[in-house]
From TrEMBL:
Similarity comment: family membership: Belongs to the polysaccharide deacetylase family.
Domain NodB homology, chain residue ranges per copy: 74-294
A Pfam cross-reference name: Polysacc_deac_1
Function: Is involved in generating a small heat-stable compound (Nod), an acylated oligomer of N-acetylglucosamine, that stimulates mitosis in various plant protoplasts.
Domain of life: Bacteria
PROSITE patterns per the UniProt record, alphabetical: NODB
Residues annotated as signal peptide: none
Protein name as it appears in the record: Chitooligosaccharide deacetylase
GO biological process: carbohydrate metabolic process
Stored InterPro entries: Glyco_hydro/deAcase_b/a-brl (IPR011330), NODB_dom (IPR002509)
Entry GO MF terms: hydrolase activity, acting on carbon-nitrogen (but not peptide) bonds
Length: 307
């Protein structure tokens, strides 16, 4: 049996990358970046604020953290709501104590349901990042482009109106994208997105609707991944963050400023027995005096000015 000719035909087969979304650029070959006050490492903290409807979407998949038992799954629903009612306020207190401004990817539905929470975040000087409508509003291959455009527009319009911020960043629910997502985000005027995890530094992506910066949004140091999925304890969580910082600190001496990203989940790290671990590790980073803490927009802008 021979393969059909079209099986061996791929229009993008060529030397180098097989797409035009971004250029192949090894991290260690790039021009060095200098952060403000010549700090060695930029610290970018994101805190995901998500609304999981009690009735999950029917397809094509459920976002991580969604309901697991038959309706009504109050156990999972209230666990997620704990993060938005309790855990987030412990995190905000830690950030305030240490003088750290974070980026908050927020579902538009949550901003509408918890206006006092949104107000406290904005008053604290944190950046709101668009995170679609809710955790049922997924982006996936093959979805209707008009439906996807509507989800993006509704999220941006709601968050911009309620927060008073311009909203320049985007994180998709489950960090899932369709083949049209990047172009739709550029079309909507967003400056950066943080769904891709293939780099440690920002880089430019090209779409037929314009350019958009990709910000590194690692899952490897995420609290939910380490503490829940992998079942590690808080000491190991702290050690891995400090090891990553040590690596970036050393690389910065020959390759310029580096970026350490930490994604926090309020219903995980906001638990009373874990919040001290977060405070201790962030204090260790701050005490190094080699850290520049900033929002995603600030880091992206500083990086972009040097390209």
């Amino acid at each position: 049996m021979t393969l059909p000719k079209n099986y061996l035909t791929y229009e993008n087969r060529r030397h180098g990358m097989d797409h035009d979304l971004y250029s192949f650029s090894p991290l260690f070959d790039r021009a060095p970046v200098t952060w403000p006050s010549s700090k060695k490492v930029a610290l970018w903290i994101t805190v995901a604020l998500e609304y999981f409807p009690l009735v999950p979407n029917e397809g094509p998949f459920k976002a991580p953290g969604h309901m697991v038992t038959p309706y009504p799954d109050y156990r999972t629903y209230t666990t997620r709501d704990y993060g938005n009612r309790v855990g987030i306020f412990r995190i905000l207190k830690v950030l305030e104590t240490l003088g750290i401004k974070a980026s908050i990817p927020m579902n538009a539905a949550l901003a509408e349901r918890y206006p006092s929470l949104l107000s406290e975040i904005v008053a604290g000087g944190h950046e709101i990042v668009a995170h679609s409508i809710d955790m049922n509003s997924l982006h996936y291959g093959g979805m209707d482009i008009d439906v996807e455009r509507s989800q993006i527009t509704q999220s941006l319009d709601t968050l911009r109106t309620l927060s008073g911020q311009s909203i320049t960043g985007w994180v998709s629910p489950a960090r899932s994208q369709s083949e049209n997502t990047l172009a739709l985000l550029a079309e909507a005027g967003l400056a950066y997105q943080a769904d891709w995890v293939n780099d440690d530094m920002p880089y430019v992506m090209k779409t037929d609707k314009g350019k958009i910066v990709s910000m590194p949004h690692t899952m490897e140091l995420e609290d939910r991944h380490l503490l829940v999925n992998l079942g590690q304890n808080e000491d190991v969580y702290q050690e891995q963050i400090l090891e990553a910082f040590d690596c970036f600190q050393k690389e910065s001496s020959s390759h310029g400023g580096r970026l350490l990203h930490l994604n926090l989940t309020p219903y995980v790290i906001g638990q009373p027995w874990r919040i001290q671990a977060l405070k201790q590790v962030l204090k260790s980073l701050i005490d190094s005096n080699d850290i520049w803490t900033a929002t995603g927009h600030e880091i992206m802008s500083c990086w972009k000015e040097q390209q």
